[in-house]
C-alpha cells in the first residue's frame, strides 16, 4: 500500500516540471504551497487560493495532495528502514490518496508546526496524531475522528510517578511543544517545571538521558514507549479528559473537509480503521486496546 520513497520523489519532480510548463497549480516535492494559475477564471480556484488553501478540485486537478505526517513518531508516523513512510496515520493517508486518485507528497511535520503548515499552505491535510481541542478548532477545521486518546505519564521504573502531586519543586517533566500535554500541565499544574522540545525524537532522547523525572504525552505514545523500552513504567495511564484524534484542514476549506468526512463515514462500513490498527498498531498495543483506541465511521462510542 505504501509507495516507495524514490517513486514519490521522482513523481513529485515530474509533476513539478510538467505543471511549471503549463502554468497550473500543484503540490511539489519541495513542500512548497500551491499557487493559483494567473489566467484561470474558475471562481472556486480563486476563492480557495485567495484563502490560502487548495480546494478539492484544485487538488484533483494537480494530481498531488500534500499531507503532513510525523517522520519520527512510531507507530503513528515514521520513516522505516526502507526509507518509506509508515504507521497508523500513513496507512490512512495512503487510502486517501487512492480514493482521491492522486499521488501523495508527504511533508514531515512536528507537533509545534502542524497549524502553521496548514495556515501557510504547505500541506492540504494534517494527519499527525492531532488531538482535537477547542483552542485548535479556532485555527483549523477538524474532520471526523478516527482514534481515541488521553494523556499519560511515563517515568523510570525505579522512581515511578503515579501522581503529579509527587513531582518535587525542583523536578522537571518533559513535554513536546504544541501538544495537549503542554497545554494541560500549563493550565492545571502551573507550578510544575516543564522541559519542552520541538520534536518527538528530541524529547525521547532527553528522557532517556534522565533530563526529566517523567515524560507527559498522549497515553498511546507513552504506553508504546514503555513497552518498547525496558526500565520504564506508565504510572499515570490516563490524565485529564478523554479526547479524539482527527485529520485537520485549513480553516474554511469546506470542499476538502466535506470529502474527508464522507470518506471517514464510508470507511467505517468496511471497518477500515480496525484493519489499520491490526496492520500498524497491533504489535505495539496488542488486541486488548483495539476497540478502546479505534473510532470507526467518525462515531465515538
Task: Write out key terms for the chains shown.
22% strand, D-Maltodextrin-Binding Protein, domain 2, alpha/beta, 13 strands
Description:
It is a single chain. Helix content is 39%, strand content 22%. With 301 residues, it is α/β, with parallel strands linked by helices. Residues 1-46 have low confidence and may be disordered.
Question: Concise description?
Answer:
The chain is α/β, with parallel strands linked by helices. The protein has 13 helices and 13 strands.
Please list the strands of the largest sheet in the order they lie side by side. 5-1-6-13-7
Largest sheet: 5 strands, mixed
Radius of gyration, whole Å:
20 Å
* H and E string: HHHEEEEHEHEHEEEHEHEHEEHHHH
Number of helices: 13
The CATH topology assignment of the largest domain is D-Maltodextrin-Binding Protein, domain 2
